[in-house]
Design brief:
With 448 residues, this protein is of the alpha/beta class. The chain contains 19 helices and 13 strands. The chain is 50% helix and 15% strand. Strands 3-2-1-4-5-6 form a six-stranded parallel sheet, with helices on both faces. β7 and β8 form a beta hairpin. α4 packs antiparallel against α5 and α4 runs antiparallel to α14. The longest helix has 25 residues. The site of manganese (II) ion has 4 residues, from loops. 6-O-phosphono-alpha-D-glucopyranose binds next to α14. It holds the Pfam family Glyco_hydro_4C.
């Protein structure tokens, strides 16, 4: 199998490659093509992969290229993991929103809309190109905002593009663990959009164990989301939200904490990664320490930096096992390539799963995956509070898609103004002004 990674110079590519190195079964990925627009980043990451592959006989062959067409031809799988505008762009997405007093975050609220407006045109071009050059390839979208970007690509790739996120599976596993259940045997009832979903049940041998968790403050206090939201609120809600819902349920606290922080998350990561890429440019640089440790440290810093708002503290080391984007992506590839039927929470077209949304709306729901792709499984109706958020945010995403397609500034203003975390149309107008000023990639938005 041939895998092409768009955004092949990205910081997380070694994690993906590490996961591939652990797969020795028939039908595994034997060739990885890295494509990136930045030659230095590509060289740096190719060098790390060579280090990882040293001494492993069946390590997948790695090819790096700056030629997109060459990268796509003959691909069985394409991972789309691009970051339009880089981390500098992300930092600006965060900063402009925070200066206007609203949430500045990579995927949620105003920051996420700005990122979507910048990314959708590029992702759409890639989708068209893939449809032409690799029409049979399966495309796994890692690019955030993952639900929105997957929907944009699905207009050209149909059900051949599948979006992924590690947060639902991570949450499900943490809940299973505190309940003493085997995470691999529990069925998680999780529904919503990407970074906007709720665990409503955890079924083990025909029994829903979630009520037992909700009734027990000690158990609720023993895992990350339990501490983040607090047992009282979770009991009242009757579900466990994805950690990103913290930005909705505790919006003021989150905005204030981000405004008080010395740096935005994007600015922090930029500094950190600049150091890495600079080091890798030096041919005499020593080999990296094991990538897994680097990752654990990164994740721990992330939790400490960003989630302390509600005293959530650091993510425990054990939470990092078997989660992660790379594991979800590998499980998905295996299921499709080898027809190994499995169940995964993925971003796919709705097709009636949530009756409030139309068939083409990309949702994040449990799916059965096999050689024919990912098929969403039937879900119980959403409670009204969730219907409200999910339909409002889907309306925002549709306005982003409209703006990206037509260049309409009015549609861009509508996207910001309709978001539940943007509290005034005037703020939305100023956000569009502010973002078009700092992002050259938004020059396509016209005057009306
Ligand atoms: C979670 C989310 C991802 C996000 C990641 C890292 O895993 O599901 O979508 O990319 O966090 O966020 P960071 O702030 O480290 O870039
Ligand atoms: Mn995610």
């Amino acid at each position: 199998m041939k895998l092409t990674i768009l955004g092949g110079g990205g910081f997380r590519v070694p994690l993906v490659y590490g996961a591939l190195l652990g797969d020795h079964a028939e039908g595994r990925v034997s060739r990885v093509t890295l494509y990136d627009t930045d030659a230095d980043r590509l060289t740096a990451v190719a060098r790390v992969l060579a280090e990882q592959a040293a001494g492993i006989d069946d390590a997948p062959v790695v090819v790096a290229t700056g030629d997109l067409d060459e990268a796509l031809r003959g691909a069985d799988f394409v991972f789309s993991a691009i970051r339009v505008g880089g981390l500098e762009g992300r930092a600006a997405d965060e900063r402009v929103a925070l200066d206007e007093g609203v949430l500045g975050q990579e995927t949620v609220g105003a920051g996420g809309i700005a990122y979507g407006l910048r990314t959708v045109p590029v992702a759409t071009d890639l989708a068209r190109r893939i449809a032409r050059l690799a029409p049979d390839a399966w495309v796994i979208n890692f690019t955030n905002p993952a639900g929105l970007v997957t929907e944009a690509m699905a207009r050209y790739l149909g059900d051949r593009v599948i979006g992924i996120c590690d947060s639902p599976v991570g949450l499900g596993r943490r809940i299973a663990r505190v309940l003493g259940a085997d995470p691999d045997r529990a069925r998680i009832d999780y529904v919503g959009l990407n970074h906007l979903g709720w665990v409503r049940g955890l079924w083990v041998e025909g029994r829903d164990e979630l009520p037992r968790l909700l009734a027990d403050p000690a158990l609720l206090g023993s895992f990350e989301e339990g501490r983040l939201f607090g047992s009282e609120w979770l009991r009242s809600l009757g579900a466990i939200p994805n950690e990103y819902l913290h930005y909705y349920y505790f919006n003021r606290e989150a905005v204030r904490a981000y405004q008080d922080a010395e740096q935005t998350r994007g600015a922090f990561l930029r500094e950190q990664q600049e150091g890495f890429y600079a080091r890798m440019k030096d041919p005499a640089a020593p080999p990296l320490a094991t990538w897994d440790r680097t990752r654990a440290e990164r994740e721990a810093t992330y939790m400490a930096e960003n989630r302390d708002v509600a005293g959530a503290g650091e993510r425990e080391e054990s939470d990092l096992e078997s989660g992660g984007y790379e594991q979800v992506a590998l499980a998905l590839m295996r299921a499709v390539a080898r027809n190994e039927r499995t169940s995964l929470i993925l971003d796919v077209r709705n097709r009636g799963t949530l009756p409030e949304l139309d068939a083409d709306a990309v949702v994040e729901v449990p799916c059965l995956v096999d050689a024919n792709g990912a098929h969403p499984v039937a879900a119980d109706p959403l409670p009204y509070h969730a219907v409200g958020l999910v339909t409002a945010v889907k309306a925002v995403e549709r306005a982003v898609l409209e703006a990206a397609e037509s260049g309409s500034r009015a549609a861009a203003v509508r996207a910001f103004a309709l978001h539940p975390l943007v509290d005034s149309v005037s703020v939305a107008r100023r956000l569009v002004e502010g973002y078009t000023r700092v992002h050259p990639g938004l020059a396509y938005l016209g005057r009306s």
